[in-house]
Design goal:
Strand order of the largest sheet: 5-6-7-3-8-9
Bound molecules: adenosine-5'-triphosphate
Number of strands: 9
Structural class: alpha/beta
Largest sheet: 6 strands, mixed
Number of helices: 8
Order of helices and strands: EEEHEEHHHHEHEHEEH
Strand content: 15-25%
Distance between the termini: 32 Å
Helix content: 25-40%
Shape: globular
Radius of gyration: 18 Å
Amino acid sequence: MKLALHGVGHSFLGRSVFEGFQLTLGEGEVVALLGPSGCGKTTILQIAAGLIEPLRGRVERAYRRHAVVFQEPRLLPWQTTLANIGYGLAASGMSRSLRDAQAAARARDVGLLPEDFDKYPAELSGGMRQRAAVARALAVDPDVVLFDEPFTAVDVGLKRALQDLVIAAAETRSFSAIFVTHDLSEAVRVADRLILLSGEDGRVLDSRQVAGQRGRRSDREIFDMVDSWSREPEFAELFDPRRQS
Ligand SMILES: Nc1ncnc2c1ncn2[C@@H]1O[C@H](COP(=O)(O)OP(=O)(O)OP(=O)(O)O)[C@@H](O)[C@H]1O
């Protein structure tokens, strides 16, 4: 076990978002947290990251270091791509040359080219900025990564490349992850297991393993799973246009 949420509940302005939420994230496991807009996915992720203290329940952490990848890249506009990627390493007191070398290695891992390293975020495309955000997270060598709808804002074609990047990184750098999304096919592609939340009251509607091995599922297998699950009543809310963000 790397991370566990035990009976976690939270409210904003006295209004409960979810109660009694349970999650145990295993070593090397990727769990997708899925649900319609407003069901509490981001709040759960922020509780897992320690950014929000839950009002009820407790969080157990058994990892060295975590990193968070947000929906927006959140790069510092006055820093180069390489400096942004190495930002977390600077905080740990690492020398400039070592930091740059590690940042460059992670930048290459996510498909950034050396000619991009000295560019500022404004000079990068949206997809390149999100690649840099993933590289920055990986640079601190986390054993847990928390993804908060990281590819919602990128083009459909690019989305797939970025999902593959996460799948490959989880394999080579062996981290565990929680991956928040409202896209069932994304969840089926990147995760080992999914937890589906209700938009009504944040309760867990379903929790299931995804058949096959992450990264080895064919497009056909993914399509068939999504097609069949999307007809189940538990998934109806997820496809309800009134609940889309
Ligand atoms: N800081 C806050 N103050 C008040 N209400 C909040 C705050 N943060 C979240 N909420 C409310 O809590 C509920 C859950 O929000 P959360 O962002 O966790 O949902 P989500 O499932 O991640 O949604 P989305 O998919 O749209 O990002 C929503 O009704 C939201 O309006």
